[in-house]
């Protein structure tokens, strides 16, 4: 781009102050090029290195129909976790054989939907779900390929709300032999189900490969036990996602190969040692694909200094568009996009505009002196921001702009105040008693 203002922050090659002017704030900005770069790293460092392996994108991190098409064109599979995510994939024309359907409490209706679309894999989370899915598949005359989600009993170092691999978790089938063996038997005996293997997911935003090694060892040992006791041959091992990203300069993220090489080496060593066939391995990163590919732009409003205490800089969004600081104490970095050349001489607290003391986006941010109208760019908001957005205080959810090369396109419209009333079409009738 020419005539770039030198004091403006550029993201994926584009002047974000101009984007804020053109589309308004708060604004999610997502770079297609950065997403594709991540997908291609997975391809060269994992898929090409280990033929037969598969990569899925965990759509809960960020989903739109355009995102489905990007992921589809990169040859990835898609992890969905609800009828709503599946519906989005269906509407985007995502190939259903590449969909992996998760969820710890899928409804019968969601299972029927998965069957009617013949999704490639259903990851069954509890024994009763085997019966529910068998019934849905039988009714449709379908055979569904499944993986059983098991609890690897390892603790990933992360916020406790996003740990899933420990023994005490709502996700997956416990490894207690009487439970897992009964589930496997039931699955194998279900005429409309084909048990391909197992799935585990340790947790999210993990920076250590050791937990993946431990989980693979645990589940491969399970495979050996099931081969001995039930004659089961495990064809597939889905190792979940969870790869950590850089939120601030304190974080030292790894390439995906840091995790996948350790996973693959352990799978092959275990297969050798336990005399098992090497299963086909799937990974399911979400945050690692899209997290650093997104930023959020805000406009600064009220600046309030409490002498001897702190300066609150309030922006025009907050908790509804990024709930992670309030929910997990997540720490974000940010830059003042229209003053990128100025020294950061102050430390401020970036507050959201909700009627909630806990609505603080960043507690301590070094900035130049700030004033109303400045544009703040919060970094690494591509994952679990837009997808977790809500309407607290009836704030409309922001638009999403997709950057591709030097093009900027509105991918998701800004919600309007009228949109907020869309589900209240009977308000008049309720008021006048006619309903
Ligand atoms: C089953 C499953 N797979 C994949 C993911 C993706 O996790 P992340 O975005 O941390 O890679 C999650 C979420 O934690 C998950 O529950
Ligand atoms: N929402 C979480 C990640 C959830 C992962 C789903 N199992 C986050 O923002 O970190």
UniProtKB/TrEMBL annotation:
Cofactor(s) annotated in UniProt: pyridoxal 5'-phosphate
Binding site for pyridoxal 5'-phosphate: 242, 284-287, 384
Active site: 355
Residues given in the record as substrate binding sites: 287, 324, 328, 356, 384
Pathway this chain belongs to: Amino-acid biosynthesis; L-lysine biosynthesis via DAP pathway; L-lysine from DL-2,6-diaminopimelate: step 1/1
InterPro entries: Ala_racemase/Decarboxylase_C (IPR009006), DAP_deCOOHase_LysA (IPR002986), De-COase2_N (IPR022644), Orn/DAP/Arg_de-COase (IPR000183), PLP-binding_barrel (IPR029066)
EC numbers for this chain: 4.1.1.20
An example Gene Ontology biological process: lysine biosynthetic process via diaminopimelate
GO molecular function, one term: pyridoxal phosphate binding
Catalytic activity field: meso-2,6-diaminopimelate + H(+) = L-lysine + CO2
One Pfam family linked to the record: Orn_Arg_deC_N
Residues modified to N6-(pyridoxal phosphate)lysine: 60
Residue span(s) of domain Orn/DAP/Arg decarboxylase 2 N-terminal: 35-290
UniProt KW keywords: Amino-acid biosynthesis, Decarboxylase, Lyase, Lysine biosynthesis, Pyridoxal phosphate
Purpose: Specifically catalyzes the decarboxylation of meso-diaminopimelate (meso-DAP) to L-lysine.
Quaternary structure and interacting proteins, as annotated: Homodimer.
Cross-referenced HAMAP family: LysA
Annotated NCBIfam families: lysA
Family (UniProt): Belongs to the Orn/Lys/Arg decarboxylase class-II family. LysA subfamily.
Identification of the protein by name: Diaminopimelate decarboxylase
Record organism: Anoxynatronum buryatiense
